[in-house]
TrEMBL record, chain A:
Highest taxon of the lineage: Archaea
Protein name: Formate dehydrogenase
Record-annotated 4Fe-4S ferredoxin-type domain positions: 4-23, 39-70, 71-100
PANTHER family: PROTEIN NRFC (PTHR43177), PROTEIN NRFC HOMOLOG (PTHR43177:SF3)
One Pfam short name: Fer4_11
InterPro entries: 4Fe4S_Fe-S-bd, 4Fe4S_Fe_S_CS, ET_IronSulfur_Cluster-Binding
Gene3D superfamilies: 3.30.70.20
Lineage: Archaea, Methanobacteriati, Methanobacteriota, Thermococci, Thermococcales
4Fe-4S among keywords: yes
Organism of provenance: Thermococcus profundus
UniProtKB/TrEMBL annotation, chain B:
Protein name according to UniProt: Glutamate synthase
Location of the FAD/NAD(P)-binding domain: 20-335
Database matches in Pfam families: Pyr_redox_2
A GO MF term: oxidoreductase activity
Source organism, top-level taxon: Archaea
Xref: NCBIfam families: PRK12770.1
Length: 174, 350
């Protein structure tokens, strides 16, 4: 199956908190995408980037972290021993230990929804269309279309390599 | 472009429950609540005084922040796939009151009529009035409300407002009082229309609600930023605004909001000439009642209990009309949780 990407375009994000709200709603009060506020009051949603060369998958001693057929990095909770090694290596500080399930948990690109043929809720509800979900080419096209249409000062198009880079590693928010 | 999927919790409408719900207000809270309720099998009718659904997201927030089509497609999907019926240009009101955007409604319905006709009513009418500052000269010609201005600009773009309604700001000097997101959006639009924009704020950039990031983008575009000043009066000539008289301030101890309180410095008055003045100092909730029928607090917001229900059983309220001005995401959150309450209440679980 073709790999899917969940991409947050920080240049079009308006910091409205809708992504965090709907994620919180469908995950019983545990949002997997969270808004962080910088010192100059920029609202930045951070979620799992489902890295190409995911360090959490590499470091997990029990192989509880794996990549599913859509490309989402997921956790088999029954295999997780809560050693927090994944948290130590994640450059975004994404995984967190859930006292409810007694295991590490994180964004799984709405695995349950995907099984029902739905898309990740944050992407479906983002009013600014700043969160895109789909195959790389589609995401690339939509992000560039959105930027070109609505943010004249950011009309420069991303190349495939730049998009991959910003999704996976060497990520620079500002 | 895909639309916002307000019905993000389901793929298609489930078996109907036979319950009918009226939603007053087609903004983020109303549409999201509609999306949840149709996924539970209820029939939803949405009343709104504007010509099409979307609320502030469509008619006020600038296009570069929220694409118009994103909202239009989302609302259309609710109508076509989930049989939501829209009643546009319909103002729901118990009593009398004039709000921004009233020129669009053609029909008026009393809230109590909806209460009789439906199994439950959700009020999500948002914030369609602006706060008045109350200084001498604040009623002069050339003083614009931020809502009015943004609404005219966007409404004109959408084809609902004639061109002559949008003031010609090219080369004009526009002063904006306030440093919230509305002030920033007004500054962006005025700057885009060729105005020479100056923002006046009583605290510093550190305390500005819009934040230094947004304000610095504006400054890079040539918008001037005056901090530690507060308006004292508006100077007019022949009934029209000519200048704003400001007082310098200094910051005192933190107030209830945690921000340091601005203290005016006596004798520090100075004037800045302006052609237009915009007081972007906050917006006020506009419930479809005026003093009676439903309980409101001293800020005009609808009072709701932990079930999101107003003082009348069966009438719920969500979003800015109950919470005051917040972000789109918080209105959506309130819309979702209120819809959960409505569903439970209709099933007799609440």
């Amino acid at each position: 199956m073709e790999r899917k990407y969940l991409y947050v375009d920080y240049l079009t994000c308006i910091g409205c908190e809708t992504c965090q709200t709907v994620c919180d709603f469908i995950h019983n009060g545990n949002p997997y995408i969270r808004i962080y506020v910088t010192e100059n009051k920029q609202y930045v949603p951070i979620n799992c980037k489902h890295c190409d060369d995911a360090p959490c998958i590499k470091v997990c001693p029990t192989h509880a972290i794996y990549r599913d057929e859509d490309g989402a990095v997921r956790i088999a909770e029954n295999k997780c021993i809560g050693c927090l090694a994944c948290l130590q290596v994640c450059p975004y500080g994404v995984p967190f230990y859930s006292l409810k399930v007694k295991a590490i948990t994180k964004c799984d690109m709405c695995a349950e929804r995907r099984e029902e043929g739905l898309e990740p809720a944050c992407a479906e509800m983002c009013p600014a269309e700043a969160i895109q979900y789909g195959p790389l080419e589609m995401v690339l096209e939509l992000v560039n279309e959105r930027r070109a249409k609505n943010i004249p000062e950011h009309q420069r198009e991303l190349t495939e390599e730049e998009l991959r880079k910003s999704i996976s590693s060497g990520y620079k928010v500002f | 472009m895909k639309g916002m999927k307000f019905s993000f919790l389901c793929k298609k409408k489930p078996q109907p429950t036979g319950k009918r719900i009226a939603i007053v207000g087609a903004g983020p809270a109303g549409l999201t609540a509609a999306g949840y309720l149709v996924c539970k099998g209820h029939d939803v009718d949405i009343y709104d005084k504007m010509p099409e659904p979307g609320g502030l997201m469509l008619f006020v927030i600038p296009e570069f922040r929220i694409p118009v089509e994103r909202i239009r497609f989302g609302a259309k999907e609710l109508e076509e796939e989930f049989e939501v019926t829209y009643y546009p240009r319909t103002k729901v009101m118990e009593g009398e009151r004039e709000d921004e955007g009233d020129e669009f409604y053609e029909r008026k319905i009393r809230l109590s009529e909806l209460k009789e006709k439906y199994d439950a009513v959700l009020i999500a009418t948002g914030i369609w009035n602006v706060r008045k500052i109350g200084i001498p000269g604040d009623d002069l010609e050339g003083i614009l409300s931020p809502l009015e201005l943004l609404f005219w600009i966007k409404g004109h773009k959408l084809g609902y407002v004639p061109e002559e309604k949008v003031p010609d700001l090219a080369g004009k000097k526009v002063g904006i009082i306030g440093a919230g997101l509305t002030a920033v959006d007004v500054a962006f639009e005025c700057n885009r229309l060729g105005a020479d924009v100056e923002i006046f704020y009583r605290r510093t950039i550190r305390e500005a609600p819009a934040g230094a990031y947004e304000i610095n983008i504006l400054r890079n575009r040539g918008v001037k930023w005056f901090e530690l000043v507060t308006p004292k009066s508006v100077i007019g000539e022949n009934g029209r605004v000519k200048a704003i008289e400001l007082l310098r301030t200094r910051l005192g101890e933190p107030d209830a909001t945690g921000r340091r309180r601005p203290i005016p410095i006596p004798g520090s008055e100075f004037q800045v000439p302006v052609d237009y003045l915009v007081f972007a100092i906050g917006m006020v909730s506009t419930p479809p009642v005026n003093g009676t029928y439903l309980a409101t607090d001293r800020r005009g917001r609808l009072v709701v209990d932990e079930r999101h229900m107003t003082s009348v059983e069966g009438i719920f309220a969500a979003g800015d009309v109950a919470n005051g001005p917040t972000k789109v995401g918080r209105a959506i959150k309130d819309g979702l949780y209120t819809a959960v309450s409505i569903d439970k209440w209709l099933r007799g679980e609440l």
